[in-house]
Amino acid sequence: MMLTVSKLRCEYTEQPLGLSTTSPRLSWTAEGAEPGRTVGSYQILVASGVAGLTRNEGDLWDSGRQPTREAPLIEYAGTELCSRQRAWWKVRLWDDLGHPGPYSEPDWFELALLNEADWQADWLGHAGSESRGALYLRRPFVLAAEPAKGRLYVTGLGWYEAHLNGRKVGLQVLDPAPTNTSRRVPYSTFDVTELLRAGDNVLGAVLGHGWSGAQKLLAQLEVVLADGSTVCICSGNAVDTDGWTAYRGPIVEESMYDGELYDSRLENLEWSATGPGFAAAPMRNLFHAMVVDAPGGVLEPQLQEPIEVVETRKIASLTEPQPGVCVVDVGQNLAGWVRLTADGPAGTEITLRYAESLRPDGTVDQENLRSAQARDRFILNGLGRQVWEPTFTYHGFRYLQIEGYPGVLQARDIAVQVVRSAMAVRGNFESDNELVNKIHQAIFWTETSNLHGVPTDCPQRNERMGWLNDLAARSEELIHTFDTARFLPKWMHDIADTQDATGAIADTAPFHFGARPADPVSVCYALIPWLLITHHGDIRTASTHFDGIRRWYDYLTSRSVGRIVQYSYYGDWAPPVDESASDPSDEVSAIAAHTPGKLISTAHYYLTADLLRRMAEVLGRDHDARQLAADAAEIKAAFNAEFRRSDGIGYGSGNQACNAVALYMDLVPPTGIPDTVAALVADIRAHQNHLTTGNLCTKYILETLVDHGHADLALTLVTQVSYPSWGHMLASGATTIWERWEHATGGGMNSHNHPMYASVGAWFYRRLAGIQVPDDAIGMSRVIIRPPMNLSLGRASAELSTVRGALSSAWRRLDDQVIIDVRVPVGIRAELQLPAGAEVMATIGDPPERTKLNNRGIVVMLGGGIYQFTVRVGNLTPEARDDAPTALTRDYI
C-alpha cells in the first residue's frame, strides 16, 4: 500500500479565498499506510499556476523532501506572496521506510488585500439621516466586455448584506463578527465572477446597526474583463461618491436585541437589480450617499467561519391559548429566527414574540429577557402570498407567539432558521446511558446557540457577550464539540484588544460590559492558546499572544501580596442557591458564600503561570519557562500556607469547590492528597451525592474524582436527576443547559441557554469514551486511549475530527470482558492504557507491542490503523479498576 494524500487544507480550510498572511500554513490527511507504518517525509510544490504543477514544478516553492515534524502544519517558505495572488499546491509523502506515494490532486489558496495602499475605497454612509431602520446603498455601473474575474472586498458596520445584480452575495448573515472596530475591522472576500455581466450592473448593500450601532459600508469590487482590462467600483472615493445613492426601505426598525419591523409595502425588489433608469419608489430616496469617518481600526480579512443559517427545522406543535394568539413550540431551545409565510390585506401587521418559556396561561414569558423586546413585526403588502424572515437581528427561543396572523396559521407556514458561526461539528459522543446522551445533546444545542462571531454567554436577553469567566469553564468542552481552529484565534485577538497599559484585560471580549481588570479566573486567555497547540497544532496563536498573556500574569502579580491575589469578583460563580451569598432574587446571590474568592483567584493565577510555562517550552523561550516554573512553585507554596486548613485536611472552607480546585490544579502536596481526596468524597456523600460547586469547580471536581480513583462517584454526580443536577434541568423540560442550577424565570440571572455548566461535555470525551490529549502533544500528535474499567456503563464511544483525520474510541462491556475499538489516523501515535490486572485476550489489527510498568498497568502502542481488543477485566479489584495507570502518560519506555 502507498501513502496517499487527501483533504488538502490551508489555514485549516479548503481553498481559502482572502488570506491575510504571506506565510500560510498547509496541512493534509494521509491515508493508506501499511499497518505499523507512518509518514516519514513529505514534499510540497507551490506554483503560480496549475500548469506548472502538472509538470511537477513549483516555481513559488519546492520544499524538497523533508522529514515529517510532529507539528501538523507546514508553513509556506517560498517566494514572497503578494495581495490578490492565487497559488496552486500539491504534496506527496514517503512512509517511514522510504516508500514514496503519488502526488495529491492540485489545490489552491488566494490572498486578500494585504496593504493599506491596496484599498481605493472609502467608508460610505449617510451621516445626515438618523434612523432605527436599515440603510440601503446602490451603485449602478457598466462593464464594456464580458467579465473574466470578479472579486468583492467588503465589510459594513454594524452588519451588512452585499447584493450584486439582484442577488445576495454569499451565504453569511449578521456579518461581520463582533469586533472592537477601533482596533480591527474585518472584511470578507467573495468571488463574484458568475454574478457579473457585460453591460448594466448594480452593486448594492443593506446596512443594519448590529453591535456597533453604526451604518457604514466599505466595498471594493475589482473586475478583470475578457480583454485583460480592469474595472474597480469603490465605495465613497472622491471620484465615485456621486454614483452611490442612499435609501430607506422596508426594514423600518432593526435591533439585535429588540427585533425587526419590516413593512413590505415599502419594498422595491429591483433596488439592486436594474440599470441606471431605476425608480426608487416606494423606497425613500435620501439622494447621494456620502463619505463618513472610518471606524479607526486596521482592515484585516475575516478568517473565521461566517455566521450562517446552518439548519432549517420544522416546528413541534402549534396551539391557540387565546383567540388570535398562536403559540409555537419549536421543540428545542436555540438561536436564530423564524421564516414566516402569510397572505392578507395590505397593512396587516403580524407580530412574533420570542421566548424560552411559557406562562401558566400558555402565552410566552419574556421576563428573563430583561430589556430585550425580542419581537419581530411583518407588515403585509396585500399583493399575494409572501415569505419573510428578518435580516439584522437574532433571538434565543424555544417558543414563538404570533399575533395578528390573517387566516388560519398552519405549521407549514413556519420554518425555524438555526443561526450560528458555521464551524464544522468536531466531536460525536454516544453511550448506553440515555440521560448522559441527553445531557450531551443539550450541550451541543447550548453551544450551537452561543457561537455568533464570539463565544457568547446567552442568546436571548440584552447581553450576548463573550465572557472570559464562562470560557474558563467551557473552553475544553467547546474545542471538543466544534472545530474552533479558526474561531478561537479570532477571539484571542478580541481579548488582546481589551488590554490596557497596565496589562489588565476585561471581563468580556469585545469589551461591551463587565469590568477591567477582569476577574482573575479569566484563565481562558492562557488556556485557549494551549488547547489550540495540543488539539490543532496551532503554535502561531500562542506565539502571537504570549507577551500579552504574560503582561496579564504580571498584572495579577501586581495585585498580589505574598503571591496571594487580593481581589475577586465572581469566584466559583453561581453555585446552588444554598451555597450562594444572599437572596436568590438578587444577582449577587450567584457569588459562592463558602468558597473564598481569593482562594479561587490565586488558584487561577497559578494555572496561568503554569500554562505560560508550557507555552514557553513549546516556543523555545527557555528563560521564560524557567522563571515561570519558579514563580509557580512560589504560588503553590503561598497557596498552601494561606489556604490549607489548620488540621492539614483540605483547603479553605473544606467544601467541594475549595478541595476540587486545589486537587485539579496540582496545588496539594503529595502527602496531603489522600486526606484531601477523602474530605472531598466525604462532602459529596454528606450532600447525598450532589454537587455544591459553581461554574468553574464543577469541571474540576469531575476530573479530580476520576484522577483519584472515584470515577463511578463522578458518574453518579453527572447522572443525578434531583436538584442540583443536569438531570434536574432536563426533568424540568430543559433542552439546553441553564445559567443556574435552579429552575428560575423573571428578570434576574435566569438564562435557560448558557454554556458555562456545559463543561461536563469534555468529560464525556475524556473520561467516558477515554480519549485524552497529553500535554506533550502538538496537534494531537500523541493521544491516550483509556477506556473506563469500573463505570456503571455498558458502552460509550466518541469520534473527534483532527487535523490528521478522524480519531475514534469505542468500548462495550460483555460480562467480564470489554471490547475496545480504536481508529487512529496516520500520523498520530496512540497509547491504549489498561490498568494492572487486565488481560488482553485477542486483537484485530496490527499486533501491538505491549509494555508493562511497575505492575501498574499495560500500554499498547498503536500507529495509524483500525484495531479491536478483547480485554478480560473480571479479575480486577475495584481499586485496580479505579486506578487507571496515570503514570503511564509519560516516560513509560
Question: Helix and strand layout, with pairings?
Answer:
Layout: E1 4-10, E2 17-19, E3 25-31, E4 39-47, H1 50-54, E5 61-62, E6 66-67, E7 74-75, E8 86-95, E9 107-111, E10 124-125, E11 135-143, E12 147-157, E13 159-164, E14 167-168, E15 184-191, E16 199-208, E17 216-225, E18 230-234, E19 245-248, E20 251-255, E21 259-263, E22 284-288, E23 290-291, E24 298-301, E25 307-313, E26 317-322, E27 325-342, E28 349-355, E29 357-358, E30 364-365, E31 375-379, E32 386-388, E33 395-403, E34 414-421, E35 427-431, H2 434-448, H3 468-481, H4 487-497, H5 524-536, H6 540-558, E36 560-561, E37 564-565, H7 597-619, H8 622-643, H9 656-664, H10 673-686, H11 697-707, H12 711-718, H13 726-731, H14 760-768, E38 771-772, E39 782-785, E40 795-802, E41 805-814, E42 817-824, E43 829-835, E44 839-844, E45 849-853, E46 857-862, E47 865-872, H15 878-882
Parallel strand pairs: 2-9, 15-24, 21-31, 39-43
Antiparallel strand pairs: 1-3, 3-7, 4-5, 4-6, 4-8, 8-9, 10-23, 11-16, 11-19, 12-15, 12-17, 13-14, 13-16, 17-18, 19-22, 20-21, 25-34, 26-27, 27-32, 27-33, 27-34, 28-31, 28-33, 29-30, 35-40, 36-37, 38-39, 40-41, 41-42, 42-47, 43-46, 44-47, 45-46
